[in-house]
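Co-fold these.
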Amino acid sequence: MSDSVAGEALRYLEPLYAAALRLTRNRADAEDLVQDTFVKALRFGHQFTPGTNLKAWLFTILHNSWRNRIRDGARDPVDVDSERVAEAAQQDGPAVVDTPERILMRDTLDADLQAALDSLPEAFREAVWLRDVEELSYAEIGDVLDVPMGTVMSRISRGRRLLFERLTREARQKV
Amino acid sequence: MSDCRTTAERLAQYAEGTLSPAESAEVERHLAACPPCGAKAAKEREALALLRSRAEQLRCHELPPGLRARCEALARGEGRRKE
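Predicted complex below.
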């Protein structure tokens, strides 16, 4: 049983590592977190429900491990107080629709996009990433992040807007 | 007529096009009448389009040397004692 989970899980090492890097912001810690996730996946493989999304299950293990590490004080959390983060983000930028920005979005470099994503508060970045890059369902993201679905949706929404604002602000500064 | 709050709750799905036609029409009516919400929706759509178009590159992260081999060994049941 867990043999098949193990074999399948090996296919997701790259996305797991990418996720771990975003969370830890450090290669050695990211590597450690992925290996830890993999060990747990092997150990608890029998708890995986066949037919459900293995990638989402692995992300859940990875995020749980990360939350435990933060709680145990293994590292300084980047931003644990997501409520405060949410409040801060309530203050959206000026509400202007700027059509030339569509062109800016098309011209955004991969490195700029990565940097803008990295600059988002963790709560928003993870929700957006899991939805728009990893294509998990809202319910799966709720499991991974351990928050209700309404929170998942509002974080995705707010996170996308923050990303847009960071990218366009950066583009304006470069001009 | 839905309000800003209801609309905000639906924006994520609206941007993805996953609302029902009736809900989507309701959101659109509000967006047309409310410029601040309209601007929010536009930003969200743009960011989503960009992320989707770059998802492949963003997902792609080269693994550090040895990590795959270690995990393969773990999967084969070797090195479990090392954990």
